[in-house]
Design the sequence.
């Protein structure tokens, strides 16, 4: 599972995906596919792709407005479950074949 896979998943399913870094900080991938580390004030001394390799738990948070009758709650998933979601997501190419 790569960072690009999580970015695609967050866009397609309109999720915010959180995972912990070794230094105690957290990476958040927005529903727009943008990965950021809240509270980071300078250039990082780590690589998000490498940090993702060791992440064991993920928090998937729906970014859509909550439905009052059936509110969508954030859910914690392990690495295997998130990897299955990224591999099960259909891949659509924006380019038409000619």
Sequence:
């Amino acid at each position: 599972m790569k960072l690009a896979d999580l970015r695609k998943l967050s866009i397609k399913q309109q999720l915010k995906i959180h995972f912990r870094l070794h230094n105690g900080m957290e990476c958040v991938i927005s529903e727009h596919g943008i990965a950021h580390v809240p509270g980071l004030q300078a250039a990082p001394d780590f690589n998000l792709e490498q940090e993702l390799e060791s992440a064991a738990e993920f928090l998937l948070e729906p970014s859509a407005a909550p439905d009052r009758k059936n509110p969508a709650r954030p859910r914690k998933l392990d690495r295997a479950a998130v990897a299955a979601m990224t591999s099960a997501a259909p891949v659509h190419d924006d380019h038409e074949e000619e």
